[in-house]
Amino acid sequence: MEMTPLDIRNKTFRKGVRGYQCEEVEKFLENVSQEFETIYAENFELREKTKGLETEISHYRQLENTLQQTLVLAQQTAEEVKQAARHEAELLLREAEHEKQNKVSEAQKRWDEIQEDIQGLMRNRDILRTQLKSFLLAHLDLANLQGQNEVIA
What we know:
90% helix, 3% strand
């Protein structure tokens, strides 16, 4: 039989010649003692279980904190990697743009040199033409003079 505090308070003993009957009181005390022992043992077990659960909760809270810190660190690392990649991409773009500018500048310089060479060659051609024309005219005049001298002589 399970006892409650109310049962203990409301328990009445019959009075005998010398007061309460000892056997009834002893039986009641035995029942109270057994119930109290059971409840005490249960209470002890529950306290131990509570301590174990609190320890486990503490462990899980520490684990949760560690996971949260790891997640934050991973997010920071990911952001840093993204930032580094953006920076590297910007540097590569600047390098490529600079290299492109250099190549365009070199190509323009080479183009200008080729144009100057072409102009020089055209001038030389014109000079050679003029010299050849003068040479041929001089020889023609000389041939004409020799032809006239042969006709006269």
